[in-house]
Design a protein that fits this description.
2 domains, alpha+beta, globular, 5-stranded antiparallel β-sheet, 10 strands, 3-stranded antiparallel β-sheet, 15 helices, 8% strand
Length: 474
């Protein structure tokens, strides 16, 4: 069945141009038009693979004696009929034709739509026996392939840079399809370990946190994994529903935990927010495995409302009573007005740099006039005097220590917003699967059919035949 999408490792030039000139934007794992909000591409992270172009070069010219067992793209080179005779290596006409056939496959698969003008990679073999010169010709053509692959690598670097994916870390991957239960379990373990470390610190001020519920969450994930390895449909569904019930319980528990910690302006709220995100994702993933797209979309919609509300409250706390503190001169080259504007645009998309500056104009004056007053209003997630200043002399100035933390705190704000956007983009992804008439399991299997993955490629790009107008969720 022909699917209404194109899957590629290369980001199209028109998309790169759109991202550069601002007519397109990346929001979580989707690229969409700024004006219409129509989705033009989905990003999906991929596992690293090793390109095998060098292997072909070894086969063709550097390792042709004896038994040749190297392979390219799982094609066994034994068909090349290598014949070793003294110091001269002779290849049959069919053998060199096979080499060039493989070369053609490499070029077609690796270069995609890149035009190879002026390069003829198909050899015309006129003689029944070709000497070493045949291999020299192949090597020359391989050098041309490598030059073009170098161009691809450069294009990939430009594309991945303009996407700005790495500017803010997130607990969520790009694409709901790559957030399977094993990945969720790994992320949950990371959160639990951070909470255990935090608990050791909080013990010093007699502050207790409850991490016992993480064992129940882990058990629910294991139940889901087992459910979807069962062969009988009724058993799969029954076990999946049991896991869903446990995920629902986790959602209620951690929502309550978040609200308690946000009231305390505690750093623990962040970990509980991330845990809640994984709980909603786990539940929705169960429905997707059951091909219950509409229910999955509803759960993502509900999760988006609950999670975004809490993240926005947490971001407001991290911006402190005077956000202009992030623009003080010592952060020049680290935090600028553009980055601060991006934070505010997540809260209110109508804002621009000029409006944000006007919002902070008085704050800049107030902060500079009395920074000590600002310190007194800091939340515990940035500054906990009973913990951070224990053992220090009362006349010591805490501001240098606090200022040193602000760049990391700002990165945390960006990370939380990125997590929110990625979660919201999952809803858009599932809407697209449903609208395109693709099953979730077909969506999982999407991969470029004619391309070899370039070594530095980090993403696949899923491009619909026409931009999709979906219900805005980001």
């Amino acid at each position: 069945m022909s699917l209404p999408v194109t899957v590629t490792f290369m980001l199209a030039d028109w998309i790169i141009k759109g991202l550069a000139d601002g007519t397109l934007e990346r929001v979580g794992g989707v690229i969409r038009e700024v004006g219409t909000k129509q989705v033009v591409t989905w990003l999906r992270e991929i596992a690293g693979q090793t390109t095998q172009v060098n292997t072909l070069k070894d086969i063709a010219g550097q390792s042709v004696q004896g038994n040749t067992s190297n392979n390219l793209l799982n094609l066994i080179f034994s068909g090349a009929n290598l014949i070793t005779s003294g110091t001269n290596t002779v290849v049959t006409k069919q053998g060199l034709a096979n080499v060039n056939q493989i070369l053609g496959g490499v070029v077609q698969a690796s270069l995609g739509n890149i035009a190879l003008s002026g390069v003829n990679l198909v050899a015309t073999v006129a003689n029944a026996a070709i000497t070493r010169k045949g291999f020299a010709d192949v090597n020359q053509r391989l050098d041309s392939v490598e030059n073009h692959l170098g161009g691809i690598e450069q294009t990939l670097e430009i594309a991945q840079g303009i996407l700005q994916v790495t500017t803010a870390a997130s607990i969520l991957n790009l694409g709901v399809s790559v957030m399977g239960f094993v990945v969720i379990a790994q992320r949950l373990k990371e959160i639990e370990q951070r909470l255990q470390q935090t608990q050791e610190l909080l013990n010093k001020i007699n502050r207790k946190i409850d991490i016992s519920f993480y064992a129940n969450f882990r058990a629910a994930i294991e139940l889901a994994i087992n459910a979807f390895t069962m062969t009988k449909t009724e058993n799969r569904r029954s076990s999946a529903l049991q896991a869903i019930n446990r995920f629902l319980e986790a959602e209620h528990i951690y929502t309550e935990f978040i609200d308690i910690e946000i009231d305390k302006k505690s750093q623990i709220a962040e970990e509980y927010i991330l845990t809640l995100t994984l709980a909603y994702l786990s539940e929705a993933r169960c429905y997707l495995e059951l091909e219950e797209h509409d229910t999955a979309i509803r759960r993502f919609q509900e999760g988006t409302k609950v999670i975004r509300t809490r993240i926005q409250k947490y971001v407001d706390i991290m911006l402190t009573s005077n956000p202009a503190a992030y623009l003080q001169p010592q952060f020049q080259g680290q935090i600028d007005l553009q980055r601060l504007t991006q934070i505010y645009q997540w809260i209110d998309p109508t804002l621009n740099e000029n409006k944000v500056f006007e919002m902070q104009r008085d704050n800049l004056f107030k902060w500079n006039q009395d920074p000590n007053k600002w310190v007194e209003t800091l939340p515990a997630l940035i500054w906990e005097p009973n913990l951070d200043w224990a053992g220090k002399a009362f006349w010591d100035d805490p501001k240098p220590t606090i200022y040193a933390r602000l760049p990391k705190t700002f990165e945390k704000i960006e990370s939380m917003i990125e997590t929110s956007r990625r979660f919201e983009a999952y809803q858009t992804e599932v809407q697209a699967i449903s609208q395109l008439g693709i099953s979730f399991h077909e969506w999982l299997k999407l991969t470029p059919s004619t391309e070899v993955k370039p070594e530095s490629a980090e993403f696949m790009y899923i491009i619909p035949s026409t931009p999709l107008e979906l219900k805005p969720s980001c």
